[in-house]
């Protein structure tokens, strides 16, 4: 009986030592995970900043009816003229419809990248001019928004 007791005592001591080692390892891993989470969070912020920087020359036009053979550049030019900014087609680098919204009743917007930020800012700063158009056409409101990332 005494031998069994001594054997169990040794196993208990061995298990206690193993628990101490595992607890220390667990603490090290928790610290490592915490550091990785901080790096991941910082990386997400940096990626978002870069993505937003890439959108500096972009605006989104909402509320424009979709037509089968439309030219989105022409729609952008028309809205720009409505706000009092007379653009040339060469001042728009590229534009296209955005992916349809989950709400099928909403028209997908148009995103336009301007050749210069100065041109983009000229259009954006005059977006309030659409207020009179929107009053005259209550069912056809047009909006000009900055192109923001999901986080911004």
Could you characterize the architecture of this molecule?
With 152 residues, this protein is of the alpha+beta class. It folds into 2 domains: 1-54; 56-146, Alpha-Beta Plaits, CATH 3.30.70. 53% of the residues lie in helices and 13% in strands. It is built from 4 helices and 4 strands. It has helices spanning 2-54, 72-82, 117-125, 130-136; strands at 58-62, 92-97, 110-114, 143-146. The protein has a 4-stranded antiparallel sheet. The termini are far apart. The model has no long low-confidence stretch (mean pLDDT 90).
Secondary-structure map:
Layout: H1 2-54, E1 58-62, H2 72-82, E2 92-97, E3 110-114, H3 117-125, H4 130-136, E4 143-146
Antiparallel strand pairs: 1-3, 1-4, 2-3
Uncertain segments are: none
Strand-residue proportion: 5-15%
Determine the CATH superfamily of the largest domain. RRM (RNA recognition motif) domain
CATH class of the largest domain: Alpha Beta
Q: How much is the radius of gyration in Å?
A: 30 Å
Largest sheet, in brief, is: 4 strands, antiparallel
Span between termini? 72 Å
């Amino acid at each position: 009986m005494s031998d069994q007791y001594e054997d169990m005592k040794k196993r208990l001591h061995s298990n206690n030592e193993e628990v101490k080692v595992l607890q220390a390892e667990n603490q090290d891993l928790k610290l490592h995970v915490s550091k990785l989470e901080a790096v991941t969070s910082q990386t997400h912020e940096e990626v978002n900043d870069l993505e937003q920087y890439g959108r500096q020359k972009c605006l989104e036009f909402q509320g424009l009816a979709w037509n089968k053979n439309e030219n989105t550049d022409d729609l952008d030019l028309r809205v720009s003229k409505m706000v009092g900014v007379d653009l040339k087609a060469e001042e728009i680098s590229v534009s296209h419809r955005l992916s349809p919204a989950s709400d099928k009743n909403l028209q997908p917007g148009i995103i336009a990248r301007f050749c210069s930020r100065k041109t983009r800012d000229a259009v954006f700063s005059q977006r309030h001019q659409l207020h009179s158009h929107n009053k005259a056409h209550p069912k056809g409101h047009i909006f000009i928004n900055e192109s923001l990332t999901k986080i911004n």
